[in-house]
Each structure stands twice: as C-alpha cells, then as structure tokens.
Amino acid sequence: MPWLAVPFSDSEGREGLNDRFKVSGIPNLVILDAKTGEVYTDDGVPFVSEYGVEAYPFTPERIIELKEQEKAAKANQTIQSVLGTSTRDYLISNKGDKVPISELEGKYVGLCFVVNGYGPVVEFTDVLAKIYEKLKEVGEKFEVVAVSLDSDESSFNGSFAKMPWLAIPRGDKMCEKLVSYFELSSLPTLVLIGTDGKTLNTNVADIIEEHGFDAWEGFPFSSEKLEILAEKAKAKAASQTLESLLISGDLNFVIGKEGAKIPVSELVGKTVLLYFSAKWCGPCRAFLPTLVKEYNKIKEKNSDFEIVFISSDRDQNSFDEFFSEMPWMALPLEDERKAFLKKTFRIRGIPSLVAIGPTGQTVSKDAKAQLMLHGADAFPFTEERLDELQKELDEMAKGWPEKLKHELHEEHELVLLRRGPRGTYGCDGCEEMGSSWSYRCDECDFDLHPKCALAKEEKKGEEDGKAAEEAPAGYVCEGDVCRKA
C-alpha cells in the first residue's frame, strides 16, 4: 500500500475507529474531508470499484454527478458508445481481424460476458453458437460480441477461439466498464442491444437456458415472440412422459444394485423422484439419511413410488460408495441422459428432487422442500396434496397459544404468525426449514417451528459425520445446497 496506516500496536486507536464508523465488514472505506472531518461516505468501496479515479473527491455531489452522467449516457446510448472508446473504433475476430464497430449499426447485438473454463458459461455459449448460426442462416441481422472477464491472454484466447463472433480486445477498459454499466450480477449474461443502439434486455440468457436451441424462434425476444415460445414449451411439457425423459436410443433402463438393468417400462405409472446429488456435496450427504427414512415410509404405504439417483460425482468409486447407501435406482455415472435431465429441469443446485407423476407429467420441481416440510406426508407431491396439508395445519393451529415465551428467545414474546400458503422460513431452534406457521419475533427476526416452540424438550437433529470432500470447480456449497457459482 502506498499510503499511511494506524500502527498495528495501537489496538485502542483501531478499535476506536471501528466503533466510531460502526464497521461490521471488510473491506470498508470511509472517506473524510481532512480539514473539517466531515464524512463524505462510510461506504466508499463500491464508489471506487464502480467509478475508480473519476469518483474523486468522493463527495455526495460528485457521486450524484456521475450517476446523472451515466443516466444521460444510457438515454443517448449508441452501439458506438457501448462498444467503442476514444482510441478504438473496432472489434476483433478470433482470426485477429479488426472489424469496424460501424458495421454493427442497424443490427441486433448481443453482448456475451465470458470467462474461460467456467462450466455454465461454456454450456451457454455452446447453445448460443448454434442459435447464432441459425439466425444468420435465416437472414436475421444479428451479431454477438464477447466481453471477456479473463485476466490473461491465454485464457482469453482459449475461450474466444471457439466462438464464431466478435470480441472487445482483451484487457480493454471497456470490458470492466460494461460490467458496471449493465450491473452484471451473474453468469451467463447476454445483453441484447436493439437496431437503434438502445438496450432491449439486460439479460436474455435465462430465456435461452430455458428453451435451448428452440429459443431462436423467439428472437428478438419481444413479448409476442416470448408468448409463442411459452406456448411451445407448454405443449412440450404436456406431451412429456417418463419414457421421453428416461429413454434415449438403446438407453432404456436404470440400474439397481450390482449394476442390474431395470427397464424404464417398470417405472411407468409410478410417482418417480429424480434425485440430483453427489457424494462430494456436503449438503447432499447430510440430506441422504432423511431422504432414505422418508422413502421407506412412503414405500410402506405406496408401491407405486420410486427414486432415481442422477449423480454429479467425479469418479466411479465416489458414485459406487454413495449409491450403496441408497435403497433405490440410478442412472449410470457416465450416461448421456444426465445432461439432458439437468438441462430440462434447469438444475443449478444439489441436492434437488424433481417429482414426476404417474402420467409422466412434472408435478413438482422442488419436491425436496416439500419433503423437508412435510416428510412422507408430502407424497404424491402435487399441488392438491399441498393444499390438503395446509388445511390440516390451519386446523391444528386453532389449538395453539397466540403468544408464548421460550428459553431460546427470552428477550421478547413470540407471536404465532401465519406465513401464507407457501411461506417458508428457517427455524432458529432446529435450524431446519419451516412453512405456513411460526412463532416469531419481528424485532429480532427470530422464528421457531410450532413443534419446536411447543415441545417440552428441544430435539436436535443428527449431524452428518462423514468426511467432507472439496466441491468441484464451478460449485459453491452454502447452507443446505451446493450451487453452480
């Protein structure tokens, strides 16, 4: 650091500054007027990150001025102002050719933010490339420009070499500026610019991920075109069967123990849970004992029920070890149907349970939540069953006290609160999910399950004692789920 510091030995001085400015997280940047001591801002990190040196002297007036300039820039936006700089009026192809930005005028332009090797972006750009070629084929005036977030030349070249479109040169300051300009919050992101140079949509990636290659028919994603896509998706969902999900060519089976092949036809007519999971995922290992317990309860009363494990494990040994703890079926580890199912149900986090009804229709894309809330009683995971369970809970609530004190929250009384038909919360007692009703303190944002609040003795769930494994690249594990980063 090229600036001054409070000595590390001056703990009293450092603690005093923390207290004075109520610092609760780092990095934290407080900016003062050195002469008057006036605090310009106690949240300077985002100002510096977003505006850099242009934010100086960091006064509220300067920040307002910058925001007004940004607002005006968006109002007067052109394809040149979005993609060019005072010293660069061209883009590059992956062959090194310089293409004038002026050639994009009058076209629809997609700005695709990319990072080399990041799974979700790689999967997305593969689909986008097919859509790009199709739109070119049918004569649409459409171009894509890669906005690389890679930090080095080799990473940039590695990703760009596989793309059939143009790019902003690597390291160009415009790449960083566009992250702020379009308030990039997730990847993949595809910003769509209209033929007049104005922004039509800050992210159509979700549309493409939902509809896959068929999304080309919805271009340029106007409300009318999206309605057409929605109708096609609805018709496709209506024609869905278990066979259309689990059969692909000669792959017409699932496996049982010791690799036994079980025809998919034996599952037809049953309620089937597709269980997306992996041994490396801590939340998956923690959830498995609960799932096994509830599975056995459901099977005792309903023979027309099954689960199929769809693994994200990295090697056969991990798959075999994890599957050995499961009393149900699975798809083989190296099976092409897994990618199709993950894409169909847009699985971004594990563990995840998708419920397929006896007719082959999807009855729930979040059966895990239903199972955690209601246990085996959630079967068969339909909306009708959830409504029945809600009515039962409402009837039970009539006998509960409206207010109570609890040893886990002695500061204030807890008030019985209805959370809505699908309202969920985290119980501060057992740390599991709750729904519909809770004993709550609004002042402290504290909730207890009715069963926890009314129980004489608090029951604690078993902790998963198995050794943790490292999540693979592209995943972040938080709470009760591992998600794609």
UniProtKB/TrEMBL annotation:
Q: Which leading EC class covers this enzyme?
A: oxidoreductase
What EC number(s) does its UniProt record assign?
1.8.1.8
* Family per record: Belongs to the nucleoredoxin family.
Reactions catalysed, semicolon-separated, are:
[protein]-dithiol + NAD(+) = [protein]-disulfide + NADH + H(+); [protein]-dithiol + NADP(+) = [protein]-disulfide + NADPH + H(+)
**Is Protein transport set as a keyword in this record?**
no
To which species is this protein native?
Answer: Urochloa decumbens
Q: What keywords is this UniProt entry annotated with?
A: NAD, Oxidoreductase, Repeat
Where does the Thioredoxin domain start and stop, copy by copy?
231-391
Q: Which InterPro entries match?
A: C1-like_sf, DC1, Nucleoredoxin-like, Thioredoxin-like_fold, Thioredoxin-like_sf, Thioredoxin_CS, Thioredoxin_domain, TryX_NRX_thioredoxin_dom
Protein name per the record: protein-disulfide reductase
Q: Recorded GO terms, molecular function?
A: protein-disulfide reductase [NAD(P)H] activity
